Amino acid sequence: MVKAPLIIDIIHSGYYKRVLRDLFLASLFTILEVPYTLKRISVKIILASSNQGKLRELKAWMEDFEVYAFGEVMTPFAIVEDGDSFKENALIKARAVYKALDDKSAIVVSDDSGISIPVLGHIPGIYSARYAGVGASATQNLDKLIQTLKDNEIKRTRAYYTAAIAIVCEKGEFCVHGWMHGEVIDEKRGDKGFGYDPLFIPEGFDETLGELGEAVKKELSHRSKALGLAKIILKTLV
Ligand code: ITT
Fold this sequence. Notes:
Layout: H1 4-13, H2 15-31, E1 45-47, H3 52-61, E2 67-69, H4 70-73, H5 86-101, E3 107-117, E4 123-124, H6 138-151, E5 156-169, E6 172-185, E7 200-202, H7 209-212, H8 214-220, H9 222-237
Parallel strand pairs: 1-2, 1-3
Antiparallel strand pairs: 3-4, 3-5, 5-6, 6-7
Helix pairs in contact: 8-9
């Protein structure tokens, strides 16, 4: 038999209201014959990123969640990424946006990522966004990497992308990683993707990500691998 204090706890937790709301909406949408998943009315996820290429990929790969860029829900602000690793920088970004939102129910997701060239000492790594200097554009960073490859007489060499995805919410802080291995070449090929993609040839392919495009990248990228792990955590939080 269910004890009275337990029922009181359930009432106080507001859980019964959510269940009733979900049942009501599910019935309504069934009557109206509108496809409906209970997930769509769950907690909003805020992405702590201003990089349009990343945001496009993160949103496309998290379509089973209700996702907004932080610039869509507040005035965007600059975040100083002074950590020593992808993980630290991802957590710095997610914490900064979680604090600014001042909403305990928020779940903030961030991505810190970059490309590394082993033969050059794993550069630019965590400095990928500012390889050509603070405030440099994606084209300037890419051109600088081409110049570095040419200066070192490297036409093609091993490279890898890293992505650290951080999650910050009331229940705690989490971080997962994903990697994509391949090679970089010393010339741009293709205009799909973003950032260093026109230089990067994933393992098992002959074309750059700039030529291959979103579908291939979604299958094997550092970001999608990290997101696969992040989604397992997110599903326990929403
Ligand atoms: P946010 O911090 O606002 O998310 P950002 O561009 O500053 O944006 P990072 O500090 O994580 O992000 O820098 C990552 C850089 O690495 C990014 O600017 C790209 O140039 C590059 N990069 C990361 N993932 C990439 C990908 O999938 N394809 C191409 N370039 C990528």
